[in-house]
Write a structure and sequence with these properties.
Two copies of one chain form a homodimer. The first copy, chain A, has about 475 residues and is α+β, with helices and mostly antiparallel strands. Chain A has 14 helices and 24 strands. The two termini of chain A are about 35 Å apart.
Chain lengths: ~475, ~475
């Protein structure tokens, strides 16, 4: 199978083709597995996602969450206990009905999310206010029999995530947890994965099944659609009631706990990393989550050059940098294109001249510029530059949102904004059930959704709801979503 | 629920009770989940198993394996392609038959192992000898509808493992991989998890379904039974044929690859870590995989003492040591027993006297001895002692095997040895199907199995097969197993 040596697709013009192609060319995932909607995750994505897990789990542990591994299978009866939840998830559940030759009396679900597994155990583990807050998390694979079109990483029938589940003494404490979850999103998605996002409180009709309040981070895709990334939920007390999760408070009174959960989907976030940071030449990884951070490309495979390359590799390896030497049979030119396409942040080009002069030629994927540095300054250079790369990648990503949000006061203009691949900002009547009709009308006419209200409160300069013309109690954002 | 403050069960006298109790008291796993044979893995085991994964994956990557995440679901048709494999695994498969309200035409298996998923993709990825060796691995959860009694960590219906799958040019190259896998077991299970084991080549009748040759590391449980830990297999070429995994060799001839696989089950190895290293007072963790390596126990919760404890914690934390301060409301004495039961390798006891004298009192779980050191020497002490702890724990574990292996030439003695909870070493006629009858007779009369021949060859001083009296072509070991 002959491979094109260069990757060059206009991402802005043809995002969908660009995305499909880069997933295949960079060997991120293989769709040819023979179960529909399931992806084989290949090393170039797994290496990055393992780093993503690392940073996210470290932050959760820093914040006092303890790790669990729960069973993948959840009995049907557990789902039935919470009405909204069963309604919300049952259409999407894969069911295990047989083991060996035995048919089970009751079906077992492949977890589509694990509230009903965790809270049943919470009722056994939590006794007193001294046990609270009870903060957990698990790294897990999740199954949803999606009826929407699947797309690698963004929406698969099996995906990889972290879910945190916490129990609290009061609604107030629970809301503190929700804010802390959003802080985790900011620190990890924002600062380390370099993804800009807006956090919305979702309207009544778009909450998680079983939640009292739902907050979610929306990332903007280059094609103008929003992607819902981590969401965090203050659950209503029906879950605590259903699973009998109670505690004895300081005054020896028995009370129901308040539950919160948070679900950063690593493989889905990876979709945004591909989509937001990539360019016409291919992928572009932020430093900390690059599968290979430094690629050393020898001008040719001469012994002396390879030896020097291996020396450099070891120095960098010892300093905990992910590094490889490209010793394949490709031409030098092919190698340069290849690693640009793969999105490796730094490339060291090594020939006899560099060895003699004790210099190194280094190419930065983010600026596409070459620099010459003294070999002995390599580590200092990398320490400094890696920070700069992330700043720059974040800034490039932030440009995406710029000019994409347009204010409007009319239904007609709203439709035009959405059709041009932008986000409309407008006045809206109500985020509880009174607003449902207006939201449905927007969806019907534009295919776009009311995302809710920003968590970072903004001034409401709108007088009227863009649809019904009644008082605008909220500023909202309207956009199409994946 | 009142908790006993001390854990004290005679492990040698009553291993089974000891094991069940420590799993519960140390909060390693909870069996009260409402699907039979499934365990909730709690933080104290997950923290350790995450470290186990870390060391194992690092070693595999060092050896050139690339990480994948394959789908959990495998179509039934994939299993049907390899006859022995389908026969071996079908009785143990959980089947997914429905998604949402839809019944599937063809059942999907929850992977009981992933050969039939990997090799189908190998056929798409491997083209030429230049692609070989093709070395992969995945970290995954595995499902087996076990008919044998389950036991936490040792045998559950869902467990956590690494599986490696590799393709090679020749049988010789494939066998090199098998030896490399055993080297990984030695470096990780042996040196880091401090578990002694013997590697056997399994007899014909006890091979992995689809293997030409099977090698496995047997760890000795304190009750005299063997536990099969990582096994590695040279597969017969039926798999390559069934999935059409071919390559073009240097002479442009198309050939079938040779496949190998290796399956260290992290959660099952954890069972051996509990069982082998623990003592009457509770768990005992090797340094590198201890959930908490150093516990700081303040004499009381006075501000000054807590402040100092937190200072020490931060110093250790910055040096990548897993450390905690026990600020609970337990008494000082209760805390000491608690952390001994939990198996934390080092305990720092901190009071006003220590702060004044700038000394620290340190308790070692492995030797059960206290030492007084200068505070400023803490890091040097830990660096030195952590190595010593692992050496000592390994040595204590090696004592288990000592005196447990007894030579015999008679059937009667063989039975006595097995009944006394020991391992019998004896002459044996044949490791291929000719020996099946003798092996079955042993199993019937003693409940024990012929484990095969040692990988590290030993001299055969036996003349005759212990059962049939024919020529002893092999030395073998006979023991009961889990």
């Amino acid at each position: 199978m002959a491979k094109k040596t260069t990757f060059n697709i206009d991402k802005d013009e043809n995002f969908s083709e660009w995305y499909t192609d880069i997933v295949q060319k960079a060997e991120l995932g293989d769709l040819r597995y023979n179960v529909k909607g399931f992806l084989v995750f290949q090393p170039w994505s797994v290496l990055s996602m393992e780093k993503m897990y690392h940073y996210l789990e470290r932050e959760l542990r820093r914040k006092g969450h303890k790790p669990y591994w729960f069973p993948t299978l959840i009995p049907k009866e557990n789902f039935n206990l919470e009405g909204e939840h069963v309604k919300g998830f049952t259409p999407e559940v894969f069911w295990v009905t047989e083991g060996g030759k035995k048919k089970f009396k009751e079906k077992l679900a492949l977890r589509p999310t694990s509230e009903t597994a965790f809270y049943q155990m919470f009722s056994l583990w939590i006794r007193s206010y001294k046990d609270l807050p009870f903060k957990t998390y698990q790294r897990a694979n999740i199954f949803r029999y999606e009826t929407k079109a699947t797309r690698p990483f963004l929406r698969s029938r099996e995906f990889h995530w972290i879910e945190t589940h916490c129990a609290h003494e009061s609604e107030e404490n629970a809301m503190e947890q929700v804010y802390q979850d959003m802080d985790t999103s900011k620190k990890i998605l924002g600062d380390i994965f370099c993804l800009p996002f807006i956090v919305f409180e979702r309207p009544e009709w778009d909450k998680f099944p079983g939640a009292k309040r739902t907050f979610a981070a929306d990332v903007l895709n280059p094609d103008g659609k929003l992607v819902q990334q981590p969401s965090t939920h203050l659950l209503n007390q029906d879950f605590a009631k259903a699973f009998n999760v109670k505690f004895v408070d300081k005054n020896e009174k028995e009370k129901l706990v308040w539950l919160t959960c948070y679900g950063p989907a690593i493989s889905r976030i990876f979709a945004s990393i591909i989509a937001v940071h990539g360019d016409n030449k291919g992928l572009k990884f932020p430093w900390k989550i690059a599968p290979v951070q430094v690629i050393i490309v020898p001008i040719n495979n001469d012994k002396k050059i390879i030896k020097k390359a291996e020396e450099l590799r070891e120095t960098l390896w010892d300093n905990k940098i992910s590094v490889e030497v490209d010793k394949t049979e490709k031409t030098f030119g092919e190698k340069l294109y290849f690693w640009e396409m793969k999105g490796t942040p730094l490339r060291i080009e090594l020939g006899n001249k560099e060895i003699q002069e004790k210099n190194l030629t280094i190419f930065r994927r983010d600026t596409e510029k070459k620099e010459k540095i003294k070999e002995k300054e390599l580590l200092t250079y990398i320490n400094k530059t890696s920070v700069d790369i992330d700043k720059n990648i974040k800034k490039q990503a932030e440009n995406l949102f710029k000019g994409k949000i347009t204010d409007t006061k009319t239904k007609k203009e709203l439709k035009e904004i959405i059709d041009s691949g932008k986000i409309a900002r407008c006045g809206f009547c109500s985020m509880n059930k009174d607003g449902t009709k207006c939201a449905e009308l927007i969806e019907k006419e534009t295919g776009a959704q009311v995302r809710g209200t920003r968590l970072d409160k903004e001034k409401n300069n709108f007088q009227k709801c863009v649809i019904c013309g009644k008082k605008a109690n909220h500023v909202t954002y309207v956009a199409r979503q994946y």
